[in-house]
Amino acid sequence: MGVDGQRSSLTQLRRGALEYCVLALVAHEERYAVDLVHDLGEIQALVTSEGTLYPLLSRLRREGLVTTTWRESDAGPPRRYYRITESGRVALRAFAEEWTSFRDAVDALITEGT
Amino acid sequence: MDMTQTDPPGTTAINSYIGRVDAAARSLPPDRRIELLDQLREHLDAVSTSPDATEASVLAAIDRLGDPAEIVASDLDVPSSPASGAAPSRPGWGPLEIIAVALLVGGTFIIPIVGPLAGLVCAWLSSAWTRREKWIATLLCSGPILLVFALFLGIVF
Q: Judging by beta carbons within 10 Å of its beta carbon (0-12, 13-18, 19+), is residue B26 exposed, middle or buried?
C-alpha cells in the first residue's frame, strides 16, 4: 500500500466514522447547522474542510437519520437546526457497539505490530 | 450607489465563493445542488451578519469551508446508505484470475474446448468479477463452441 492508498483508506475510515460523530453531536439536543459545522471543523483529525460536512448532513437527512427544523432568529434569516431521529438513534447505537470491538481489535494488532 | 455602506462585510467574497461552488456543482442532481448552495450561503451569511464580523472573519470562514471541488466531490462520493455501508471494494486479481484469463484466451490452443471451459470454471470461482461479467464471458466463450457443435450436427445429420 503506497502513501496514496494509505491516504485514501484513512479518508474512507474518517468518512465512515464521521457520520456517526455527527449523529452523536445531535443526539442530545438539536443543533444550529452553522454551530454544528463549526464545532466539528475544530476536530482536525476528523474533518478536512467544513464545507464537506454539508453534503453529509443532507445525506443523513435524506436517509431519515436526522431531521431539520427552521427557526426564526432575532437577527438575520431563519436558521436550520438538525436533530437525530429514532432510526438515527438505532444506527448510532449499533455503530457504537461495533466500533468498540473494532477499535479494540485494531488497537491490539497495531500495538503488537509496532 | 455605494454598496459597502449597506452590505455586510465580505459580501463580494461570499458571492464569488458561492458562484464557484455553483460552477463546481453542475454534476450534482438539481435538488442537491440547490440544497448545498443554500447551506453554504446560510453558513456564510451567519458569519457576515454576526455583530463582530469583519472582512477578515468572512474570508477565514470561506477558507475553512474549503475548496468547492472538494465539497462537491464529497457529495458525489458518499455511499448511498449508511445502513448498507460503503460499497464493498472489489477484490484484486490473484493467480485464479490470471489462470482464468490465460485459459480463456489461450486455452483453446492447448486443449480445444476443454481449455476455455476450465478457464470459465476458474472465472466463475473468482470473486473479482460480477455475476453479470461472468455471464458475458461465458456467452462469449461458449458461443464459438456452440457454433462448432451446431455445424458438426449439421454435417453429421
A: exposed
DSSP B90: P
The residue among B4, B49, B43, B53 whose CA lies nearest residue B21 is B43
**Among A41, A56, A77, whose Cβ lies nearest the Cβ of B78?**
A56
C-beta atoms of B81 and A63 within 8 A: yes
Grouping H, G, I as helix, E, B as strand and the rest as coil, residue A26 is: coil
Helix (H, G, I), strand (E, B) or coil at A69: strand
A88 contacts A65 by C-beta, under 8 angstroms: yes
Q: Nearest to residue B138, comparing CAs of B117, B114, B108, B111?
A: B117
State how far residue B123 is from chain A, nearest Cα, in angstroms: 26
The residue whose grid cell reads 483529525 is A45
pLDDT beyond 70 at B87: no
User: Is B45 in CB contact (< 8 Å) with chain A?
Assistant: yes
Q: What percent of chain A has pLDDT over 70?
A: 99
Is the Cβ pair B49, A12 closer than 8 Å?
no
End-to-end CA separation in angstroms for chain A: 17
Inter-residue contact B6 to B40 (CB < 8 Å): no
CA pseudo-torsion sign A67, A71, A75, A76? positive
The ipTM assigned to this model is 0.86
> Which one of A11, A32, A34 would you mutate to disrupt binding with B, by most B Cβ within 10 Å of its Cβ?
A34
Which helix (DSSP H) or strand (DSSP E) does residue A66 occupy?
Answer: strand A66-71
Q: Does residue B58 surpass a pLDDT of 80?
A: yes
Is B70's CB within 8 Å of A52's CB? yes
Q: Identify all chain A residues contacting B67, using CB atoms and an 8 Å cutoff.
A: 49, 51
